[in-house]
Amino acid sequence: MIFFWAFVVGGAICVIGQILFDVFKLNPGQTLTILVVVGAILDGLGLYEPLIDFAGAGATVPITSFGNSLVHGAMQEAETHGLVGVVTGMFEVTSAGISAAIIFGVIGAIIFKPKG
Questions:
Q1: Mean pLDDT, contiguous 10-residue spans, the chain (116 residues)
Q2: N or C: which terminus of the chain has fewer CB atoms within 10 Å of its end residue's CB?
Q3: What per-residue confidence (pLDDT) applies to 94?
Q4: What is the rounded CA–CA span in Å between residue 57 and residue 64?
Q5: Dmax of the chain from CA atoms?
Q6: Cβ atoms of 74 and 89 closer than 8 Å
């Protein structure tokens, strides 16, 4: 059943993104920003963790999870290190994903011929 709910929740997030594209005519940057901010707001309100517990990968794979990670890391580090922890917590939690994206992007650019 977890696979079903992961599919439904992940699909719903994708449908929301597609609606932002098609109905509101937003460009990819605007849509990405909105979804990240929504994920951050939901985590700030304490609603994203229950969604992850319910849907698993359906909630952790989409871009909304990046906003969740930013706020979650900031709040976690703020409890132990105060105001400085807000900034360092965001980078501590998301640095592995961002680093992997940069490294794999460079490797992909080296291996494959970019069209330009």
A1: 94 96 94 94 93 94 88 88 84 81 89 78
A2: C
A3: 79
A4: 12
A5: 47
A6: yes
Tokens of 33: 């920003």
Which amino acid makes up residue 26? L
Length of the chain (residues) = 116
What is the dihedral sign for C-alpha 49, 55, 56, 62?
negative
pLDDT value of residue 116? 62
Q: For residue 66, what is the DSSP state?
A: H
75 and 89 in contact (C-beta within 8 Å)?
yes
Cβ neighbours of residue 3 closer than 8 Å, sequence gap 6 or more: none
Q: Do residues 42 and 57 touch, judged by C-beta distance below 8 A?
A: no
Rounded to a whole number of angstroms, the CA Rg of the chain reads 16
* Per-residue confidence (pLDDT) for residue 5, from 0 to 100: 96
Cα separation, 93 vs 77, in Å, equals: 10
Strand locations in 3-103, DSSP E? none
